[in-house]
């Protein structure tokens, strides 16, 4: 894995990036892989950065979903989305090894910015129960493909969950469960296409420590935020992440 990440300075920078990504995830529930990959994109091969965050993504989503206390109720509500998300993750992983994902990242970023701005400008926008059932599998497919291509699944899933009007902790727990269910096919897919070998897996496992430390710090901050401020912060973070996706797609 790039000479085991080359230098002590680079290793420290990677640890800081993982901590910051974990802190963002702890605060708003999403953003760990996107923050880390964005920060490391100019220093590491993008595929290497994607492999690096594989285990932190899995462990942080286990942490998030189990601690929410709504694991089984969320599974009953979102199983059609979860099924579509998990299956389409396999497709995305295969796309990753055969194409430049920059176009897809740019399209995803545009979608994220537009829908997040809609949420900011029309805060009362909600999907009905019928619309929720119809939209869920489609959202799962889109998020799964991007999950496989780049581990970035948070923005489309977050936009969907925000549109359901979930309260803060229900949002965090539901996203954690959905993302967790997509993490395992992602891991197996990356191993099967040669992206995540024994060395990469070992380094990715070590990377869990700074990421979870960041999640714990972010959680403490989240508990001090009221629901209205949380929703506003989440949408602002999504706009920022979406703009960064567009930047990555253009460069």
Regarding quaternary structure, what we see is single chain
Unreliable segments (pLDDT under 50, ≥5 consecutive)?
none
Overall mean pLDDT score?
80
Label the overall shape: globular
- Number of DSSP E strands: 0
- Beta-strand content: under 5%
> In angstroms, what is the radius of gyration?
17 Å
Domains (count): 1
Topology at a glance:
Elements: H1 2-5, H2 8-28, H3 32-40, H4 46-52, H5 54-68, H6 71-96, H7 102-121, H8 129-150, H9 154-163, H10 168-192, H11 198-206, H12 208-222, H13 227-250
Architecture overview:
The structure is a single chain. With 251 residues, the protein is mostly helical. The chain has 13 helices and no strands. α2 runs antiparallel to α3, α6 crosses α8 and α7 packs antiparallel against α13. The longest helix is centred in the first third of the chain and has 26 residues. The protein is globular and about 50 Å long. The model has no long low-confidence stretch (mean pLDDT 80).
Précis, in short:
The protein has one domain.
Features:
mainly alpha, single chain, 251 residues, globular
């Amino acid at each position: 894995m790039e000479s085991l990440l080359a230098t002590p300075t680079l290793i420290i920078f990677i640890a800081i990036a993982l901590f910051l990504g974990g802190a963002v995830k702890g605060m708003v529930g999403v953003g760990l892989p996107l923050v880390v990959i964005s920060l490391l994109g100019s220093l590491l091969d993008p595929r290497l950065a994607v492999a690096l965050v594989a285990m932190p993504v899995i462990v942080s989503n286990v942490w998030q979903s189990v601690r929410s206390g709504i694991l089984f109720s969320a599974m009953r509500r979102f199983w059609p989305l979860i099924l579509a998300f998990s299956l389409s993750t396999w497709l995305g992983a295969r796309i990753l090894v055969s194409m430049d994902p920059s176009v897809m990242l740019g399209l995803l970023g545009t979608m994220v910015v537009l829908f997040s701005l809609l949420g900011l400008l029309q805060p009362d926008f909600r999907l009905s129960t019928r619309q929720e059932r119809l939209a869920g599998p489609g959202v799962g497919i889109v998020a799964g493909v991007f999950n496989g291509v780049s581990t970035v699944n948070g923005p489309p899933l977050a936009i969907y969950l925000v549109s359901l009007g979930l309260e803060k902790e229900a949002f965090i727990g539901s996203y954690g469960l959905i993302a967790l269910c997509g993490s395992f096919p992602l891991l197996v897919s990356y191993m099967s296409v040669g992206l995540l070998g024994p060395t990469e897996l070992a380094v990715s496992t070590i990377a869990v420590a700074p990421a979870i430390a960041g999640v714990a710090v972010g959680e403490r901050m989240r508990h001090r935020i009221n629901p209205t401020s949380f929703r506003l912060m989440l949408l602002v973070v999504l706009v920022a992440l979406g703009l960064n996706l567009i930047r990555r797609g253009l460069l």
